[in-house]
Amino acid sequence: MPTPPCLLTIAGSDSSGGAGIQADLKTFTMLGGYGASVVTALTAQNTQGVQDIFPVPEAFVARQLRSVLDDLPIRAAKTGMLFSAPLIRTLARELEGKAFPLVVDPVCVSKSGHSLLLPEAVETLKTVFLPLADLITPNRPEAELLGGVAITEEADVPKALDRLLALGPKAVLLKGGHFSGEVLTDWLAVPGQKPRAYQHPRLPNPNTHGTGCTLSAAIAAGLGHGLNLDTAVDQAVNYLHKAIQTAFPLGQGIGPVNHLHPLR
Fold first, then answer.
1. Residues 133 and 140 sit within 8 Å (Cβ to Cβ)
2. 127, 172, 181, 189: which could join 195 in a potential S-S bond, CB 3.0 to 4.6 Å?
């Protein structure tokens, strides 16, 4: 049996298991990878929201990362919750010169509205970390924050994509979940190419906790398997669509997507 590709998530822990490190590791496994993790923060969290956050000290985050990279042949990585400017600068130093693709999910706010990135860290994320990314995966509010442009209709998308590419990542996937309409569109932009649209019907299932984490982890998994970016995004979008389609109610709030749907 061939060895699965080693995939790394650098993100926060979700104690309820639906997002963050837990969602990433489930996704890696279901898509045929071996998952490793670097925990940036602990959250007291459930389907109703985030009750508290305990940031992991920057030096220990760096120690985790060095331990993994010194030993495992990482084929692709993704980041999620980075929380603070000092942590972002620490990770940027450690990841400089990386030999694997990096997917950056610029997590700013949880599904329940809790801030997962300190306001003073936004500029550091833009100037220090995004240039390291092979792909960033902002949703609409994140794209507006990072790009400094309002996105009120489809005609605003090309300008927003250009603003985000100007921050230095090799590619941008602007997710369509925060737009209205029965058909949702995710836009993939690469410098010098016409943006590609990935369209899928809006699903009525309200259980969508962990969608952003899951999508970025699925893209990283595809890249770790050696897929090109277009194919990795296409595979990831389809995986997430089915995970939402088969998501189940859990707890008293927004339930998680169903990472295990391929087993059923």
1. no
2. 189
